[in-house]
Automatic annotation (TrEMBL):
Compartmental location: Cytoplasm
Record keywords: Carbohydrate metabolism, Cytoplasm, Hydrolase, Metal-binding
Gene Ontology BP, a term: carbohydrate metabolic process
NCBIfam families found in the cross-reference section: HAD-SF-IA-v1, HAD-SF-IA-v3, HAD-SF-IIIA, Histidinol-ppas
Pfam families from the UniProt entry: Glycos_transf_2, Hydrolase_6, Hydrolase_like
Species name: Geodermatophilus sabuli
GO molecular function: metal ion binding; phosphatase activity
InterPro entries linked: Glyco_trans_2-like (IPR001173), HAD-like_sf (IPR036412), HAD-SF_hydro_IA (IPR006439), HAD-SF_hydro_IIA (IPR006357), HAD-SF_hydro_IIIA (IPR006549), HAD_sf (IPR023214), Heptose_bisP_phosphatase (IPR004446), Histidinol-phos (IPR006543)
Location (main, coarse): cytoplasm
GO cellular component, as recorded: cytoplasm
Protein name in the entry: D,D-heptose 1,7-bisphosphate phosphatase
Segments for region (Disordered): 45-68
Length: 499
C-alpha cells in the first residue's frame, strides 16, 4: 500500500536554539506536498512560547515537556500524533529542498516488516584547514546507524516497544537503544534516499569533558542488550580500555607514592604520562594544530581518562539492576463512580457529579505526557428504570466539564442478568475503547475501585490498578494484582512505568 506524506507527522524536539529557525525556514521553502503536521516539542523548563509561524509550513502544533530530555520530548511528540508514520528531525539539521518528496518515496510501499527508515546525513567540514577534534567527532554522524537526526518510524512500532527509553538522559544512545528494541520484535530498519545537512554546532573548549557522561549510558546499553550490543548497533568501542589503563596507572602512582615506594611510583607515573601523551597526540595530530586547539587538547586529554572512568564506574553502580523499558501506556481507562467521582448510586443529576480529590490533576498529568484517557462505566440504573440514558449522558458531559475531555467514553446500560458482553467484569467496554483508538489492549491500563474493573481489564488483556474505597470488599483488595491508596498514587505509578 502506498503511503502518502499526509500520513506522516514530523516531530522536532527543541530547546529553542537559533538553529531551529534555519530548520523551519528549510521546511517552509521546500516544494511538494506537506506532511499531516509538524509537532514542535519545547523541552525547555521555562521560556517564552515558541513562534514557529511562517508561510509554507505544514500545520504546526507546539507541546511542552517542562524539561525532560530528548527521549521524553520525542515520546511526547509521537504520542500526541495520530498518523501512521512519525518522522523525527533534530532541531540543528537542514533538510535538502527535496526532503518532503524523498521522504514520501522512502516510505511508499514499504513492506509491513519494515518499521523505520533512516535518512542520510552529511556533515560539512571547514575548507582550507584540518577539522578540529569536535568537528571530526560530529562528522561521525554521517556514518552512524539509526540516529534520530532524521529517522521515520511507524507509530505502531513505537507503541509496541514503549518509545524511547527515558532512562537515557542525553542525546546519546537513546536512538540506538530504540532501534535494537524495535529490531528485537522481528522488524527491519532501512536507509532511505533523503538527505539532511548536520552543521557542526558551536561549542566551548570543554565540551569533550561533558560528553564523557555517555560512558554511564554505555553501561545501561550493555545491561539492556548484552555484551554484543555494539556490534548490533554499529557502535565502536572507542578508547575506553586505554582510558581505564591510564587512570589505573595514575591511581597506582599516587598510591605507591603514599606507600613510600618511589621507584614503583615512578614507573606507574611514567606509564600514566606516556598514555596521556599518546592520547593527546592522537587528538592533536589530525587537527589544525593551532595554539587554541593544541592547548585545549593537552588540557582535556589529561582530564578525559579519569573522567571517562568515573562515569563508567558510576554507570556500573547506578545500573546494577535494570528492567526492560516498558514506557507509558497508550491509554488509561478510568471507572467513573467511586474512582473519578464520589459514588452516588444510580446518579442521574449532573449537579451531584463531584470529583475525588486530585482527579483533575491526575488526568491532566496523563494528558501532559501524551497518554490518552477514557471512561468505562457500568450504568445498570438505565436497565432498572431508575435513570435514563439521557441523564447518564448529561452526567458524563458534566464530568468532562470538570475533568477535561476524554478520548473515549464507554457506557454499559445493561443489568447484571442481561448477559451482555460490555458490562464489567466482561471485557467489552475495554476492548471497544481500545478498538476505537487503535490501541493494543496490552498497552492499556484500567484504574477502578472494585474487582469488576480489574477482571474486565484482565479479560481484555489490559493491565489494572485498584484504588479501593471503604466499601471495596477486602477479598477483592487482596486479590488485586496492583493497588494504590489514591487516584493520584495510581496515576503516579503509571507515569513511573509501574503498570
Amino acid at each position: 500500500m502506498q503511503v502518502g506524506i499526509e500520513r506522516c507527522s514530523v516531530v522536532v524536539p527543541t530547546v529553542g536554539r537559533p538553529s531551529l529557525d534555519v530548520l523551519l525556514d528549510a521546511l517552509a521553502a521546500a516544494p511538494g506536498p506537506r506532511p499531516a503536521e509538524l509537532v514542535l516539542v519545547d523541552d525547555r523548563p521555562t521560556g517564552a512560547p515558541l513562534q514557529p509561524d511562517r508561510p509554507g509550513l505544514p500545520p504546526v502544533r507546539v507541546v511542552r515537556t517542562g524539561g525532560g530530555g530528548p527521549a521524553r520530548a520525542r515520546n511526547l511528540g509521537w504520542r500526541t500524533a495520530r498518523t501512521e508514520w512519525i518522522a523525527f528531525l533534530d532541531d540543528d539539521v537542514v533538510p535538502d529542498p527535496d526532503w518532503y518528496q524523498r521522504l514520501a518515496e522512502d516510505l511508499a510501499a514499504l513492506p509491513a516488516d519494515v518499521a523505520g527508515s533512516q535518512g542520510r546525513v552529511r556533515v560539512p567540514l571547514p575548507e582550507g584547514r584540518r577539522p578540529t577534534d569536535w568537528e571530526r567527532g560530529t562528522a561521525g554522524l554521517a556514518t552512524s546507524s539509526w540516529i534520530t537526526a532524521d529517522l521515520a518510524y511507524r507509530r505502531a512500532a513505537l507503541a509496541t516497544v514503549g518509545g524511547f527509553d527515558e532512562r537515557f538522559p542525553r542525546a546519546f544512545r537513546e536512538d540506538s537503544d530504540l532501534a535494537l528494541r524495535v529490531m528485537d520484535t522481528g522488524a527491519r530498519l532501512t536507509r532511505g534516499t533523503r538527505w539532511i545537512t548536520h552543521p557542526v554546532r558551536p561549542v566551548d573548549r570543554w565540551v569533550s569533558l561533558r560528553v564523557q557522561a555517555g560512558n554511564a549510558d554505555d553501561v545501561l546499553m550493555r545491561r539492556l542488550h548484552g555484551a554484543d550490543w555494539r556490534e548490533r548497533a554499529d557502535a565502536p568501542l572507542g578508547r575506553r580500555p586505554q582510558h581505564l589503563a591510564v587512570t589505573a596507572a595514575g591511581v597506582a602512582a599516587l598510591g605507591l607514592a603514599a606507600a613510600r615506594r618511589p621507584r614503583a611510583a615512578a614507573v606507574a607515573a611514567l606509564a600514566w604520562a606516556a598514555g596521556t601523551a599518546e592520547f593527546a597526540w592522537a587528538r592533536i595530530a589530525p587537527g589544525p594544530r593551532d595554539r587554541a586547539e593544541v592547548t585545549t587538547m593537552l588540557a582535556t586529554s589529561t582530564a578525559i581518562p579519569p573522567l571517562a572512568t568515573w562515569h563508567f564506574v558510576r554507570g556500573i553502580v547506578r545500573h546494577r539492576r535494570v528492567r526492560p523499558w516498558r514506557g507509558l501506556p497508550d491509554l488509561v481507562l478510568f471507572d467513573r463512580d467511586g474512582t473519578l467521582v464520589r459514588d452516588y448510586p444510580y446518579n442521574g443529576d449532573p449537579a451531584l457529579v463531584t470529583p475525588v480529590p486530585g482527579a483533575r490533576e491526575a488526568v491532566d498529568a496523563l494528558r501532559a505526557r501524551g497518554v490518552r484517557v477514557g471512561v468505562v462505566s457500568n450504568q445498570s440504573g438505565v436497565a432498572r428504570g431508575l435513570i435514563t440514558r439521557a441523564q447518564v449522558d448529561a452526567c458524563m458531559a458534566r464530568l468532562e466539564e470538570l475533568l477535561g475531555p476524554f478520548d473515549t467514553i464507554q457506557v454499559c446500560p445493561h443489568g447484571p442478568d442481561d448477559g451482555c458482553a460490555c458490562r464489567k467484569p466482561a471485557p467489552g467496554m475495554v476492548k471497544a475503547a481500545c478498538a476505537e483508538l487503535d490501541v493494543a489492549p496490552a498497552r492499556c491500563v484500567v484504574i477502578g475501585d472494585i474487582a469488576a474493573d480489574v477482571d474486565a481489564a484482565a479479560a481484555a488483556g489490559a493491565s489494572s490498578i485498584m484504588v479501593p474505597t471503604p466499601v471495596t470488599r477486602k477479598s477483592e483488595v487482596a486479590a488485586a494484582p496492583r493497588r494504590a491508596a489514591t487516584l493520584t498514587d495510581a496515576v503516579g505509578a503509571v507515569l513511573a512505568g509501574e503498570w
